[in-house]
Amino acid sequence: LKMSWFLFYLPLRLLMVAFLCYSIKVPISSSQQSFKTHLFNFYHSLILADGKETTVHLLKDIPKRYYFILEEGRALAPFTITVTPCDVPIEWSILVHKASAICSLPAGDPYTQEVSTSQKAPSMVSTIFNYKGNSVKTYMGMSSHFALYMLEFLSTERDTHISVYLSTYMTPGHLYPELPMDPRIDVIDVGHTTVTLTWKHSPSVLQHRENIQYCLLVNEKHNYKSLCAAETAIRSSGMKLPPTLALSLSPHLLEPQQVMVLSNSELSIINKVSSGDVRQICMGTRNTYTVPNLSPNTQYYFDIFVVNILINASAAYTGTFARTLEEPEPKVTELEEGKVIQVVLDGKTQKFYSLQYQARHKKIQFTFQLCHGQVRVHIAKNGKTVASENISGLRYFSLKGKLLDTYLVQLKSTEESNCSVKVALSFYKPLFPLLPESLKIKSFSKLRTCNSVTIAWLGTEEDSKYCVYKRKIEEDKDWMELKSADRCSGPESRHKSEKVLCKYFYDRNLQRAVTTETIKGLDAGSLYLFDVYLFGPSGISIRYHSKVVKTRKSC
């Protein structure tokens, strides 16, 4: 046991001699100088960095030691040490070795002197702090003597890693972020998809706003005591993470499983993991925040961290949790036979709009006309899905069943902007007109003149009514906006002066179901927007794709 004690303290004592005696100008021989240099190189990797966080990897049941020495020439040397366990509980302690006893050694061979004094080691070493657990702990000390400090870390559960921050500089920029006297997070409002949080300001934010920011962590599993603990948990789910501040501030370091959202000066990182999303949102120095885009009736855990971006260190508030409100039962609208309704869908809430119908006929047909945006349609019969797809233009669903079958139609916007769609239910004859193979309008460049253009469009085998409208548009006007207007709007929305003509035509042979019209009385070198409306037997119209044509400047 004595030999083990001797072997442990021999290199440590020699290291103290080399560092401390050099610091207080004790004369040493050239051989001692060489020995000091050798020890410095040997132990350089064990010297704890000052003023920044150090990641320490621990193997199970194998202690690891780091050293630091207080700066030369300071009568009173304050320092702080913060240790953050990133996974399992650890044991750690701080030991101090006084310099005065070391440097009073008489001249002679350093090895001999070390052997003679090593037996006094217990009286020269004192433990000033020790802790066991997985909480973040900070030790603040003050020394009036030159001394060598040793930090010893041990993990008895499994391999792990910790974060250690040492600062011997008490300047504001090098201080670890402080928590307020009351570090709790308050939940002040809960909605179906949002939770609003508030917390007391950190003293560090109030004093050094330019280097401090708040970051919020949101997940569905549990609270975390530190950012590195959260990152460790995410890694265990099978993904790699960049360092915390790189995660917060450097989007180019994102992993493939991460999504970055930047809006309103907020940076949100969403980590896609098998157990759910883990969101990290940094919001500057605001101490109130509404978390958006949550799922209804779901419990979430919220952690706030105050981060010093200058030294990449963070302190955790006391985490909280909240359950979002349950989504109310969607309002169901009854569909009526032979009637057309237009539904506007909210893209922000992404809610389903529900329509219901109890069959009075064995064969029914649902018709959907997309007016604006992108819409997904889901149709269920007696609770079983019979159709589900995104629709565009005009879409028919012809279904067979039994009398009194219950049909539920659900509509949802697939975009963040609002969408609209017309819905109709019919039995014998469709309410909407029979459509041709294409709804494109063709113009003939060779037939253009200074005051006329010729257009053509396809018809069907049914005798139907077609009306042509025109609108002159300015050169600098965004005519694409006119083309993307509500596709469900009919001729009733047009000015009477825009109407050109109406005509009926059909052809049993679809190869010949084509008609042309020459529109005259136009201005030379001008842009015109042409629309053709096809009317069905019930009076409902379908608009062909708008066509823009420019007349010739000179003829």
TrEMBL record:
Signal peptide extent: none
Pfam families found in the cross-reference section: NDNF, NDNF_C, NDNF_N
Protein origin, superkingdom: Eukaryota
Single GO molecular function: heparin binding
Keywords: Glycoprotein, Neurogenesis, Repeat, Secreted, Signal
Role, per record: Secretory protein that plays a role in various cellular processes. Acts as a chemorepellent acting on gonadotropin-releasing hormone (GnRH) expressing neurons regulating their migration to the hypothalamus. Also promotes neuron migration, growth and survival as well as neurite outgrowth and is involved in the development of the olfactory system. May also act through the regulation of growth factors activity and downstream signaling. Also regulates extracellular matrix assembly and cell adhesiveness.
Name of the protein in its database record: Protein NDNF
Organism: Halcyon senegalensis
